[in-house]
Amino acid sequence: RKEVEQDPGPFNVPEGATVAFNCTYSNSASQSFFWYRQDCRKEPKLLMSVYSSGNEDGRFTAQLNRASQYISLLIRDSKLSDSATYLCVVRVTGFQKLVFGTGTRLLVSP
Amino acid sequence: DGGITQSPKYLFRKEGQNVTLSCEQNLNHDAMYWYRQDPGQGLRLIYYSQIVNDFQKGDIAEGYSVSREKKESFPLTVTSAQKNPTAFYLCASSISRTGAKNIQYFGAGTRLSVL
Question: Is the confidence at residue A62, as pLDDT, over 70?
Fold first, then answer.
């Protein structure tokens, strides 16, 4: 089983739609959680950290469910510019290592 | 402009050749990392360094070597022992390697191909 699993997609949504991605992690010692965004042939960029109580940044909302070991990302009012691959990233306690998921691809169409 | 600079953007390697990828940061970050990304796979850690003159193997260090002689610089050499070097190589840095300061920021990457 992969340490971090994501649905690769693609998720095809129209502009203005709301879309949600989930990510599951296998190591219960995971300590910190992030969503990164990666555009085609570019480097990953930090989108947001994910906090236990959930957090929001504009149109983006991240949630963490430690009991079920998954995190989610909700994007409201999708824009064409949201088209990208979203990487779920987890840090494991002890090793202080970041583990990257393979990403979920989002395509927003006019 | 603060950031992480990787060069070159594209690199071609001949059979049996060693090549070196450059990574420089002016963020005053202590920790630096090298990752490899292949299509359909997540980023995989090659090497990391927490401080100058110290570095550790990641998950896929075979066929690679690094040095950390200066805080700002963490070059990666892809040796001829790396039989499948074609990939997108990403360098990252973070303030430190532990705790909340381990948010990693990436350079623009180097695409390595074999001739």
Answer: yes
